[in-house]
Amino acid sequence: MNAGDQARKLAGNDAIACLSVEQILKGRTASNERGSAYLIDSLKHPDEIKTLRQLYGRSFYSLGLYSSYKNRSKALVTRLKVKMDDPVVDKIMKRDQDGGLKHGQSVQQAYPLCDVFADVDDETNAEHLVTRFVELIFGNTFKTPTREEYCMFHAQAAALRSADLGRQVGAVIATDDADIVALGTNEVPKFGGGQYWPDEKIPDDRDYKSGEDWNDKKEFGYRPISKRRMCSR
pTM value? Predict the structure, then answer.
């Protein structure tokens, strides 16, 4: 951890990723190989993922592995040969999550940037998920979306309804069999009901057009009208 922090401090937050690229290049040059995949274990800062994605484009995939706090603690205890209640275990785990430095490692920020996530506490399911992901990368057209993936696809599409990056949140209500019941998005409401659409022949009053966010301009609160009814101001 100290070495990684020092490298990022001296050469930038993507320094470790750049060193990895250098090693990959040397290996390919020496063997004159093509069509080989390299596994980097592991990435600790969001800038590392961003740099690799910029360099390799669609040939780069980031896999996020999750394990419970309890199991991660056990692994550290075994590796460090300390007792379970040793404070160094919790200290290391918190530093791994967020070192508190601009150039420190931050798995907390890097993890959401991954392309796929696997719970390694369930080894059988994790192996199945990773195998399926690799098959999709290589174009297996018989691997269709799962129910969760299908619903998340629609939620993502709904999120893109908003032109404000800070408001791009979508939601889906679906049955157990993934039949879509309703879609929702966090967007500016239109006067009279509904939402604004770019192909409508009416003035677009969304904040990116007006140049200001109404939420930043005015605070909203709730005022009780009666014991049975509430409304917003």
Answer: 0.69
